[in-house]
Design a protein that fits this description.
It is found in: Cell membrane. Belongs to the ABC-2 integral membrane protein family. Keywords: Cell membrane, Membrane, Transmembrane, Transmembrane helix, Transport. Its main location: membrane. One of its GO terms (molecular function) is ABC-type transporter activity. The chain is mostly helical. The chain folds into two domains: 3-42 and 171-369, no CATH class; 51-148, no CATH class. Helices cover 66% and strands 4% of the residues. The protein contains 15 helices and four strands. It has helices at 2-18, 21-30, 33-41, 60-68, 82-90, 104-109, 125-148, 172-203, 205-210, 216-246, 255-279, 283-299, 312-318, 322-335, 340-369, and strands spanning 51-55, 78-79, 96-100, 117-120. A four-stranded mixed sheet has the order 2-1-3-4, with helices on both faces. α4 (60-68) links the parallel β1 (51-55) and β2. It is elongated, with a radius of gyration of 28 Å. It starts with a helix and ends with a helix.
Length: 370
């Protein structure tokens, strides 16, 4: 009867989720529109950056520099006066402001080294980080061509041959789409499981379950398998129809192998969701706990920055987090086409962490019911 109870209780959870329109809308949005937006909203390192130019020389040389800036790296430059430069930077209208001094062309032809001022709004980190090098390269190239009256091929002492693997087109949409699927699996599994338990407590149905011939183990497992199944099916459909179909992202590895890893990840994160729901007294408190848990899990898991760049104590803590191993497994399978012989350590780690979290959450859940 224990398996039958777990099955019936899980079906009850699925029916309850089917009546919750907000959670259903969240699931559909997270695995469709959010993935599409994430893949399209991740621009190149420098893309359509606003730039203004103060041309105090008004010469052919300075005109060449002005004409050299344009899409896709920069917006068409806006010619402004020296008095407008600081005001526009203060208002955040320009990321770059280039000031070409008077007598610029005369100094260039006289083989002197004129000084060109470049102001950068460093609060726009993504563009400011590499934008200065782009501007310097463009100005230096145009000045050299103007001085020599011809464009001369640059000869490097060493030839560097670059081979981009796994993402030959260097398309950020490939990375953004798959990364969002990975993060949505963790986020929704915690939210759905925790919301299911809190919803029963708020509606008073948890007391009805306690007078029935069911155990806390059966109640908890029913919530884990039902909510985990919803997320697992949604992620599989999203990979096939949204990532591969709509976005045309080629997945290198085996989707079934990825789903096996996702199932183990769901086992761990749904257990975590039950634990957070027992700690939280209401849905608003549960939302606050999610912020404290989800943000570190997502940011420090290795999906955005390499784990090796983390400080030592944080690296040690994240090495026992399920997200860290799941991100490593998902990237190896979906990006690099890794097989079971490569990702089995991550599978074992996820299974072990899931068992520990399940046991800890079950003990907390039993105390919560008493």
């Amino acid at each position: 009867m224990r398996a039958a109870n777990i099955l019936r209780l899980g079906v009850k959870e699925l029916r309850g989720l089917g009546r919750d329109r907000m959670l259903l809308a969240l699931i559909v949005y997270a695995f469709t529109l959010a993935i599409y937006a994430e893949s399209r909203a991740m621009p190149e390192v420098l893309n359509k950056a606003p730039i203004a130019i103060v041309d105090e020389d008004q010469s052919p040389a300075s005109s060449r520099i002005v004409a050299a800036f344009g899409p896709p790296y920069f917006l068409p430059p806006r010619l402004i006066t020296h008095e407008e430069m600081d005001r526009r930077m203060d208002q955040g209208l320009d990321t770059f402001a280039l000031d070409i001094p008077p007598n610029f062309q005369r100094d260039v032809l006289a083989r002197r080294s004129p000084t060109v001022q470049l102001n950068i709004d460093a609060t726009r980190m993504t563009q400011a980080f590499n934008g200065g090098a782009y501007v310097q390269s463009i100005v230096a190239g145009e000045v050299a061509e103007f001085r020599q009256r011809r464009r001369q091929a640059q000869i490097n002492p060493v030839e560097l041959t670059i081979r981009a693997r796994f993402n030959q087109e260097l398309s950020p949409s490939w990375f953004g789409a798959i990364t969002h699927v990975i993060s949505s699996i963790t986020m929704l599994s915690i939210i759905l499981t925790g919301a299911a338990l809190i919803r029963e407590r708020e509606h008073g149905t948890i007391e009805h379950l306690l007078v029935m011939p069911v155990t806390p183990f059966e109640i908890m497992v029913s919530k884990i398998w039902s909510m985990g199944l919803v997320v697992l099916v949604a992620s599989a459909l999203s990979l096939v129809f949204v990532v591969q179909g709509v976005l045309a992202v080629p997945l290198q590895g085996s989707i079934p192998l990825f789903l096996v890893g996702a199932a183990l990840q769901l086992f761990a994160t749904t257990s975590m969701g039950v634990f957070l729901a027992t700690v939280a007294g209401s849905m608003p408190q549960f939302g606050l706990l999610l912020i404290m848990v989800l943000l570190p899990l997502q940011v420090l898991s290795g999906a955005m920055t390499p784990l090796e760049s983390l400080p030592g104590p944080i690296y040690a803590v994240m090495s026992i987090a399920p997200n860290t191993h799941f991100v490593s497994l998902a990237q190896a399978v979906l990006f690099r086409g890794a097989g079971l012989d490569v990702v089995w350590p991550q599978l074992v780690a996820l299974a072990a962490i899931g068992c520990v979290l399940f046991a800890f959450s079950l003990a907390k859940f039993k105390r919560f019911l008493t």
